[in-house]
Fold this sequence. Notes:
five-stranded parallel beta sheet; five-stranded mixed beta sheet; 601 residues; alpha/beta
Amino acid sequence: MAKWFISAKKADFDDIGRKFNISPILARLIRNRDIIDEEDIRKYLHGTIEEMYDPFLLKGMADAVIILADKIQKSAPMRIIGDYDVDGICSAFILLKGLNSLGGKADTVLPHRIKDGYGLNENLIIEAHEAGIDTIITCDNGIAATRPVKLAKEMNMTVIVTDHHEVPYEEECTLPGQENQRFYQLPPADAIVDPWQPDCPYPFKQICGGMAALKVIEALYIQLSLSIPDKLHEELRCLAAAATICDVMELSDENRILTKYGLKHLRECENLGIRALIEVNGIDAAKLSPYHIGFIIGPCLNATGRLDTAERAIALLKATDYREAIDIAGGLKSLNENRKEMTAKGVEAAIAIVEELFHDKDKEMFHAVLVLYLPDCHESLAGIIAGRIKERYHRPVFVLTDGDDGVKGSGRSIETYHMYDEMCKCKDLFTKFGGHKQAAGFSMPPENIEKLRQALNENAALTEGDFIPKISIDIAMPLSYISPQLIREFDLLEPFGIANPKPVFAQKDLILLNGRVMGKTGRAAKYKVSDCDGRKFEILHFGDIDAFDKFLSDKFSPAQKELLYKGSCGTEPMKINITYYPDMVTYKGKEDIRIVMQNYC
């Protein structure tokens, strides 16, 4: 059972409300997201695209654009090497279109997930050299590619690394009582643009590879004393916004500004490929949200890199004929449907392993970090499955699969476990690894699987409390407070995502009056409830209806539950506490309030 707590961050909410013409409720919600200073509140509510940070604040940017300007002037052949996920695809396209718009002679190569693995490798360097490439530009990768970059330099190639991942480091013990000292290992590139470099003054580190690529093109235009054409700038910004959402970056600071801009302009931007994906998936472009980007459009782009080659996604973004774009988009949608089926089978197999591990409750702590070996799982799905298992059991998860050369794995983490730092403690077990706090990937010999499981669990400083999901409630607000005006004000908080979650409200002691399961699949239910003053409301519940049914069975008698679904509450009140979120829906031209129950106890 999750632990509920009410956020108790203090401020003068009435004063904030007056200054920014918002309700004290909205002022409290903003404060709960750690937006405190007046300037930060203004930027959160009304920040504009013109307030994005100067790209030259990124360490290495000045060197990078001087090199690129020279390469363009000399017509030197350049190769952009991205990655096979949405961020890597979008950042590669941003650099390609930006460089080509300035007359640069550039092409792109995206690694094949199975043949090449993640990011830059020596084979890609050799292929580029044989093709007569003068300059390698990485995006969404490269910061950990010391050996490939060294090989490129030995072949007299120029290398520019643009990335957003943490810099690899060695850690050495110092004097007792002092923190260990870190020695960062940067690749020997001619220029490196990555906000996580030591001493980088960029004020916001949480940018994705697409944002870093956008900054490079913006800085390059400045270096050449040119203005980016408005339509081009809009297209590149929209793709960087999509990459930000799909790479699950924090939607705060300039990421929030860019994402708001992208959601507004994506529906009519110049990129035919994105517009085709919106159409084939039946999305109402006027209501485009982070959900549509992150859970519908993004997975279609990702699917090609998972089950085929990411080059198809690049071809979609490069399409200049709308019919061609529709055909490619339709193929990606079908590929994603296949990916969903394969993922469901993988999740089922992973759950079976975990349940076997947890068969003896006394041994659950021996598996504080779950290391699950699924040899028959497609390696491209390991990260998705790890994420699903992490959500179900709320503990760090690594899913391992058989690859062409040993075992490959992906990990997803909980808030209290820094995945990359923990992997650094047993790095000798890996042939290759990288990542950050919340996610990681690696390759290793199969004989090291059990050693990895043992090392990660022996090193983990996790407690039972870390495995209990925590639900932060913004405001304990009675359902009777909800009004259309208040709900419309919540639009100012969007877009929602990491670091800017959808608000959570709560009310206790609601009485269930009646209920019914809805829909062909039975994945939704509607309940009528009343509060202590007898006011009646309708609430909806989506998702795991079976889990809620079990909750009712555990909490109330069979007779009470039977009466509930027959439309009568009986003589004994069925009281529950809920967290919820209200919004407005339109049905047959009529607007109405909808209250969605999120959690219950």
